[in-house]
Fold this protein.
Amino acid sequence: MSRPVLRPFEEADLPAAAGLLAQRHGAHRKRHPLLPADYEDERLALVEVTAVWESEGASGAVLAEEGELTGYLLAAPKPAPMWGPNVWVEAAGHAVREPEHIRDLYGAAAAQWVDAGRTAHYVLVPDDAELVDAWFRLGFGSQHAHAIRPVPSGVVAPPRDLVVRRAARADIPVLAELDLVLPRHQGRSPVFSAGEPGTYEEAVADWEESIDDPGYATFVAVHNGEVIGSSVGCSLDRSSAHSGLAKPDNAGFLGFAAVLPAARGLGAGRALGEAVLQWSTETGYTSVVTDWRVTNLLSSRAWPRLGFRQTFHRLHRLIGY
Ligand SMILES: CC(C)(COP(=O)(O)OP(=O)(O)OC[C@H]1O[C@@H](n2cnc3c(N)ncnc32)[C@H](O)[C@@H]1OP(=O)(O)O)[C@@H](O)C(=O)NCCC(=O)NCCS
């Protein structure tokens, strides 16, 4: 038997890479049938791998065994400075017949990324335990969760001391205050997110402009006559964080929720999440998607309780220390 061969990814590898990606996605959909069926078709998987290959600065490696491609890895930098000197492996950027081989592919591809000063590495990995384990044994850790659930069929009433209603223009001051709750929370330990919180005045100006946008459903939770929390639902099409294989068809998106610190634990977060789920059913969506920082001790516990199941792990590795 000839030894596996590792070499740089070339354009001619695209069709075989698409075949591997379609297979990986088919196995992934057995666990999550709500993920988009299209990419089980090699021709549509090819569109996704080609998009990664054509991204500016893309590079990677392939593994061939007895002349047949059995794995590939492709990454490209993102221009956003908040991710550091980065390269990203998107959902369509890797597929291997044997999970262990992702380690060989990374070994072959990462040298040039690091030589170019790109030391912050990110990868979107399906919730395949063996594949996640192989990435963990490359020094990666879990940073972010993508999750999905079907829309609910019944209505869940909020606790008796809470009212959840659609937000109105008069709620703008408290909506703006709640907008700052999430980045402030995530700026602290143990999330330490680098995202900039923005100012109260900017948040007010955003709400003044967007409160009547019919594409967004904004809810507030009221306790003892005071607004204590908010949530926002919209079409998943409006989220840039979910695309391609990680973007289910006809999905709603739980895009934001926050409860004032003093009012947490009363069930308001659940009630606000349920309002977006219910709105998604009424709008005609099939599923609802959300995502969270896994180091956010609040959302990472609240959203699974609402029935969200993780589909992809975003893993992260910082080289040099
Ligand atoms: C996330 C957040 C909106 C949840 O709101 P909340 O009012 O605190 O949550 P709830 O009281 O409704 O609890 C929600 C669920 O999480 C569970 N939960 C809360 N803390 C938990 C803990 N420490 N361990 C296990 N489960 C926990 C609750 O039991 C509840 O599930 P249940 O209804 O099945 O019992 C709120 O904590 C918050 O604003 N966090 C900061 C901003 C943020 O992270 N927003 C989310 C953006 S992705």
Notes: The chain has two domains: 5-139, 150-310. The mean pLDDT is 97.
